[in-house]
Amino acid sequence: MPFEKGQSGNPAGRPKGASHKVTAATRALFKDVMEGEIENIKDSLDRLREESDEKYVKALTGLLPYFLPKQQEVDVTMKAPPKPPSWFDEVDTSNVDSSWMD
């Protein structure tokens, strides 16, 4: 019995962020391979540093996206002016010298 258009056998679908089985297996395999290559990678980077500082820095910056999250610019705007804290009205400021604030 075919599904109606727009309907499926699993209406909830795969949860957001859940990876595909092949993706998970590929990542696990890649992780195993890379863990076995750590010393070789260190040795290669050391040789590259001795050969050329420029190539070494370029190699490191090329690796950074795999170890650090991508930075995103966030625009923050306030729609309402900030209000003083609720306890501010309870503070007695009548005997405070405020001349230093001028």
Describe this structure in words.
With about 100 residues, the protein is mainly alpha-helical. It has a domain of about 35 residues. The protein is built from 3 helices and no strands. The N and C termini lie far apart (about 80 Å). The model has no long low-confidence stretch (mean pLDDT about 80).
Task: Write the topology of this structure.
Layout: H1 21-36, H2 38-51, H3 53-63
Helix pairs in contact: 2-3
Provide keyphrases for this structure:
single chain; 102 residues; mainly alpha; 3 helices
Which strand-content bin applies to the residues? under 5%
The mean pLDDT is 81
> Main sheet, how many strands, which sense, barrel?
none
- Helix-strand topology string: HHH
Uncertain runs: none
Tell the overall outline. Answer: flat
Terminal CA distance reads: 81 Å
Which class of secondary structure composition applies to the elements? mainly alpha
Multimeric state: single chain
Radius of gyration: 29 Å
User: What is the overall number of helices?
Assistant: 3
Strand count = 0
Please estimate the helix content: 40-55%
